[in-house]
């Protein structure tokens, strides 16, 4: 019953609504913003949605879905590319008391089939593009009772336009009652970097905690830009935090091209850019960056995976008016356990900030599992009210320890001010002659070279030395650098045990998931064919 003195905690006294109903909370927040304020802007098409239109869509769709039979115990899959209707439809599903789950058009057949097998939705809301790509798979699942289409492609489906032509009284609208501490509002999916994605059940309470805007950076920020896809915790929660605080969210795909992204920031005078590290790294090497007026940009916010300090320094050189590059430590299973946006001493170079409200973190020795003190490296473990209800079909003892902490698999430490630092994934660390080599560190060194667009490092098995660091590199267009030149460059920058003794190979692209995370298991498979 005694907690370790080495636990570090976020604010344990922050408040959530007594009703523990995420849908109702969002409805109440939306009503507080002027109806004419822009809620969403599609940076690629220019389509705009005001807060009044957004709230009306949520109420209309929720009432219509309820009349179709959607409610407690049902799972509703939204299968579509991003559009202005996506987030409102997500919230409408949650307001019915049902569980929302997303599927990405670009997931691929095996992943779509796998996710449907996990959640077995009763209702599917899909776009024409998704239907044309996955019709065969959809028709194979007899659990699906009803189809709704954003575009009219099915004779036996309900057109989405029929759901929104209701003009429900938004002042009288209320979300269905739920048991917020236990009812799943969403099922999202783990990133799939270690194997097939797992279904992550998030309750209404989880969402309320994850979307708590307490001390969220700079209250003067009114326009944000997100390059994510809304199929993940980071993108979904980021959208809801923006909308719950009356801000304007401009969205654009990171795959749309650097020129589209930069034009969007310039046109809409974006003040905060939310992006994954691979997109932020791209900004530091972007040859057309100086052609755009980015003076409105105050903050860049990174989450998802490691962002090296060299990338931050280079970004500040290229964008001198930028106030801060903020980093959050996020995961589908536990929201955002730490963030620099809440750090009492502001951002610290290399850190991912301090614990978020309600969160408890411990760093444990990877062998003894004993909690460690400041500046001692171990596995980061997390618990608190943002921690998921669980993985679908997987026993809790497989991912929680005896005290109920999630074993994240991330190596890190915290300092005397309770700022957390991420070093690498435990499973990714390369073991060379008893030394532990961080792939992320080597990737950061390679990416300092002007000829390198991006890099991925893994260990090549070796009978004598254990593993040899090996690199895959995407060159900048028109670069003439050779593989040996880059090997020599790394050797000049690192300790002898970190050198690329496993070799270096040029590739056209690195394998990444839709969140931009590097798929190291695929890099290891590529070693066998190198």
TrEMBL record:
Q: Where is the AMP-dependent synthetase/ligase domain?
A: 38-391
Domain AMP-binding enzyme C-terminal residues, every copy? 441-517
GO MF entry, a single one: CoA-ligase activity
The record's annotation in InterPro entries points to:
AMP-bd_C, AMP-bd_C_sf, AMP-binding_CS, AMP-dep_synth/lig_dom, ANL_N_sf
Where is it localised?
Peroxisome
Q: Does ATP-binding show up as a keyword for this record?
A: no
* UniProt keyword terms in alphabetical order: Ligase, Peroxisome
Family membership noted in the UniProt record: Belongs to the ATP-dependent AMP-binding enzyme family.
UniProt name for this protein? 4-coumarate--CoA ligase-like 9
The record's gene field reads 4CLL9
């Amino acid at each position: 019953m005694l907690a370790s003195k080495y636990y570090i905690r976020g604010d344990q006294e922050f408040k959530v609504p007594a009703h523990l109903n995420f849908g109702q909370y969002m409805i109440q927040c939306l009503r507080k913003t002027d109806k004419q304020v822009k809620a969403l802007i599609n940076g690629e098409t220019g389509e705009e949605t005001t807060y009044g239109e957004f709230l009306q869509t949520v109420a209309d769709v929720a009432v219509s879905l309820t009349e179709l039979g959607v409610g407690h115990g049902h799972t509703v899959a939204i299968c579509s590319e991003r559009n202005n209707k996506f987030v409102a439809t997500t919230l409408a599903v949650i307001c019915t008391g049902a569980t929302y789950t997303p599927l990405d058009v670009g997931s691929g057949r095996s992943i779509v089939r796998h996710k449907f097998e996990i959640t077995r939705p009763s209702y599917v809301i899909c776009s024409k593009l998704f239907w044309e790509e996955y019709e065969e798979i959809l028709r194979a699942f007899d659990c699906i009772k009803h189809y709704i289409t954003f575009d009219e492609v099915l004779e036996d489906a309900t057109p989405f336009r029929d759901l929104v032509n209701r003009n429900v009284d938004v002042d009288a609208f209320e979300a269905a009652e739920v048991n917020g501490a236990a009812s799943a509002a969403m099922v999202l999916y783990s990133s799939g970097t270690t194997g097939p994605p797992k279904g992550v059940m998030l309750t209404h309470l989880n969402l309320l905690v994850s979307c708590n805007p307490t001390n969220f950076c700079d209250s003067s920020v009114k326009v944000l830009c997100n390059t994510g896809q809304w199929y993940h915790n980071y993108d979904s929660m980021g959208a809801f935090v923006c909308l719950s605080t009356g801000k304007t969210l401009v969205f654009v795909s990171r795959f749309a091209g650097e020129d589209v992204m930069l034009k969007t920031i310039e046109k809409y005078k974006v003040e905060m850019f939310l992006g994954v590290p691979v997109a932020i790294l791209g900004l530091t090497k972007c040859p057309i960056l100086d052609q755009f007026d980015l003076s409105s940009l105050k903050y860049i916010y990174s989450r998802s995976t490691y962002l090296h300090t060299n990338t931050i320094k280079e970004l500040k050189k290229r964008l001198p008016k930028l106030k801060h590059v903020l980093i959050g430590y996020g995961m589908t299973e536990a929201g955002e356990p730490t963030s620099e946006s809440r750090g009492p001493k502001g951002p610290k170079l290399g850190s991912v900030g301090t614990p978020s409200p309600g969160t408890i973190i411990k760093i444990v020795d990877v062998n003894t599992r004993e909690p460690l003190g400041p500046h001692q490296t171990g596995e980061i473990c997390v618990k608190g009210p943002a921690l998921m209800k669980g993985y679908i079909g997987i026993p809790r003892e497989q991912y929680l320890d005896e005290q109920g902490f999630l074993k994240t698999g991330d190596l890190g430490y915290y300092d005397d001010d309770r700022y957390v630092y991420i070093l690498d994934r435990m499973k990714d660390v390369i073991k060379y002659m008893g030394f532990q080599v961080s792939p992320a560190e080597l990737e950061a060194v390679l990416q300092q070279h002007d000829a390198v667009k991006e890099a991925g490092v893994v260990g090549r098995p070796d009978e004598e030395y254990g593993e040899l660091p090996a690199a895959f590199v995407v060159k900048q267009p028109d670069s003439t650098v050779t593989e040996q030149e880059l090997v020599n460059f790394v050797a000049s920058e690192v300790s002898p045990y970190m050198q690329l003794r496993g070799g270096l190979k040029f590739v056209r692209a690195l394998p990444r998931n839709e969140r931009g995370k590097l798929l190291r298991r695929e890099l290891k498979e590529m070693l066998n064919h190198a």
